[in-house]
Design brief:
mainly alpha; rod-shaped; membrane; transmembrane helix; transmembrane
Length: 63
């Protein structure tokens, strides 16, 4: 009598690729949001483009 081996079907790698792409997109959007919210465009905000700018009061006291 012949022996029948039933093996579970291997999962496709596409799921991991989709998850990785979603994580990369979320990371990129978070990076853009954080650094554009802090820096902004010097032409529109009127901030100096060179030199070191120090706040008058510590950051934790200004909120």
């Amino acid at each position: 009598m012949a022996e029948i081996n039933i093996e579970p079907k291997k999962r496709s790698g596409w799921g991991w690729i989709v998850v990785l792409l979603i994580l990369l997109l979320v990371g990129y959007l978070l990076y853009r949001y954080v650094f554009e919210a802090q820096g902004g465009n010097p032409e529109t905000t009127g901030t100096p483009t060179s030199g070191m700018v120090m706040p008058l009061a510590p950051v934790f006291l200004s909120h």
